[in-house]
Amino acid sequence: MKKIGIGMVLMLFTISIIAQEEEAIKQKFIEETRIEAPVFSGDMSNNETERLSLNQYLQDELSYLANYDYLDDEGIVSVTFTIEADGQVNNAFVSNSVAPELDNAVLNAISNSSQLWLSGKINGEATAMEKTVFVKFDIPGNASHNQLAIDYMNKAVTQVYAIEYIQHLPLAKNKQDRKTNRKARYAQNCLVRAEKFKPDDLSITFWQAKVYEIQGNNDLMRQHLNKYLELVAYREFENDLLMNQDMAVITIK
């Protein structure tokens, strides 16, 4: 029995050493891997003085929208795309929608920006990488996007609390289900509207997961909980974007 015990200890010790060595190798690989993100060069004519920042490029491409009197939608459109090793833009799609006309305008601007990017690199070698850019459409005189997002989210939260109250009432199950489903749908619609003004927000994502749980949609609930965990490190979302010039602001008259 002692031999078996010693053998087990030696085996566990060996496994522990192997695991530590594998972790050290992984860490060394991460430390030695130099990743450079894609950069918007803005080189319109090989002239240094005519190079644009991404913000300037988007402002120029989308400035015509500011004169459309009939546009009454606002919010943040985000477009995700791949910058290939040769600087071409591919696979662009709207990852946060505000309204079809605004979505398509941003999508076209990004799709037309091929050859204006310097590709990302891994250890000095040009590599295809994904990127997301954001365009904030703002209507002067309206509440701030942050306040609008909070207002819609608060409406959703009120519905969730109402659902919890309904579930403790002595109602027939079919009547209770009808009331619950109606309020859950309204709450989800409010959260969709909130997300237009503040995409990838921690609180909005959390409450979306909660509403999906109420609706019994476990797949979407888990999807949003996973998204919530990924967003924990990005609390100052909009400020970071503005500082990094990954967001353009278009004011609609």
Descriptive labels:
253 residues, alpha+beta, 2 domains, four-stranded mixed sheet, 53% helix, 17% strand
Structure summarized in a few sentences:
This protein has 253 residues and is α+β, with helices and mostly antiparallel strands. About 2% of the residues have low confidence.
Characterize the structure shown.
This protein is of the alpha+beta class. The protein has two domains: about 100 residues, Fusion Protein Consisting Of Minor Coat Protein, Glycine Rich Linker, Tola, And A His Tag, Chain: A, Domain 2 (2-Layer Sandwich); about 90 residues. It has eight helices and nine strands. The strands form three sheets. A four-stranded mixed beta sheet has the order 4-3-8-9, sandwiched between helices. Strands 1-6-7 form a three-stranded antiparallel beta sheet, with no helix packed on it. A two-stranded antiparallel sheet has the order 2-5. The longest helix is centred in the first third of the chain and has 31 residues. The chain is globular. The N and C termini lie far apart (about 85 Å). It is found in: Membrane. Pfam families: TonB_C (PF03544). This is Energy transducer TonB. Keywords: Membrane, Signal, Transmembrane, Transmembrane helix.
